[in-house]
Amino acid sequence: MSIDVNEAIIAIREMRPIIDPEEDYLTIVAAEEKIAAAESRRKKELEEGHGNMKGRFCYHQVYNPTQRKCTALAKLLESARLSSRRPGSVPSEQAHGKMLNELDKLKLDLMKSISDLESLVVSQETELATLRDEAHRLEEYDPALEHKKELDGSA
To answer: Fewest CB within a 10 Å sphere: which of 21, 35, 126, 149?
Structure first.
């Protein structure tokens, strides 16, 4: 399936208002900063957890502040695991890509249908103009005058 160059140019021109390279760049930079901040925060929490756990955890004590911290960290880890999973309402990466491909195919099919229908409209308009010209010519045609001319010419 090939795309007509004119259709591609039209599609690019239609997309021009929604494409802003500066805004896209700023969005990417902001996302990278958020990711780096979250990563450093998680690393710090992990280091604190490891520091609290090293050599201080005792199984024999019933009440131990370190044990409480360890339990809190385990709960934090479990909640982080749960929050890192993709929600069921969000499609997987493969399903999302497949859906995008299907939508692109549908868009191209619709563009082709529109182009075909526009061609049909042009041909119908041409036929209509031809029929109007013929109707105008027939309205101006006088058979009696034509018959008289034939009689005068043959006599």
So the answer is: 21
User: Measured at the alpha carbon of residue 91, what is the angle toward residues 89 and 92, in degrees to the nearest 5?
Assistant: 135
Residue 49 · residue 73 · CB < 8 Å = yes
Angle between helices 93-140 and 5-15 (to 10 degrees): 120
Rounded to a whole number, what is the distance in angstroms from the first to the last CA of the chain? 69
Cα 5 to Cα 8: distance, rounded to the nearest angstrom: 5
Q: What is the pLDDT of residues 145-154, one digit of tens each?
A: 888 888 887 6
Question: Which residue, 118, 146, 108, is CA-closest to 4?
Answer: 108
Whole-structure pTM value: 0.39
